[in-house]
Design brief:
The chain is built from 3 helices and no strands. The chain is mostly helical and about 60 residues long. The protein has one domain. The structure holds iron/sulfur cluster. The site of iron/sulfur cluster has 8 residues, from loops.
């Protein structure tokens, strides 16, 4: 995404299984490489992660 990925917008690199097409590829953005799974943010499901992300974005 040449202009960056706005909050709330699905990344163009996600495939139909919600997996990153750039995983292991040197073109994968550094911010993505540095992010590790965080149970506080990610929870135990995709839906829970989206709810947590929305709450964090609203609070900051
Ligand atoms: S890890 Fe980064 S590049 Fe890959 S799908 Fe997620 S936001 Fe997009």
């Amino acid at each position: 995404m040449p202009q960056g990925k706005p909050p709330g917008v699905r990344c163009a690199q996600l495939d139909d299984n919600n997996l990153c097409r750039l995983f292991g590829d040197p073109r994968r953005p550094d911010v993505c490489k540095r992010f590790n799974y965080d149970p506080e943010l990610c929870g135990t499901s995709r839906n829970q992660a989206l709810v947590n992300l929305a709450a964090w974005e609203a609070a900051t």
